[in-house]
Amino acid sequence: MISESPQFHFDNLHDMETRIRVEFSGRILNFFIEQMYDGLLLHGQTNTYHRKQQVQHAVMEATEIPIRANNIVVGCREDSDAKIAHTER
User: N or C: which end of the chain has fewer CB within 10 A?
Assistant: First the structure.
């Protein structure tokens, strides 16, 4: 019996990262997803635990690959968010 490996609903990690950045309108900074042999690691910064959880759930809806760690740091300031989001455009 051949087992199916989990697949992204996106072509690659970059597409998923871009979707998350757009969906959260600059409220997640330095966001990226690292793929390990056994799952995903989420990285970035945000200002609330609620948003950290929302990002994790958005990734869970987009792929069946398990999230092994949510390393999104909580505590960045709103004014820093706006400055960084503006410079990324």
Answer: N
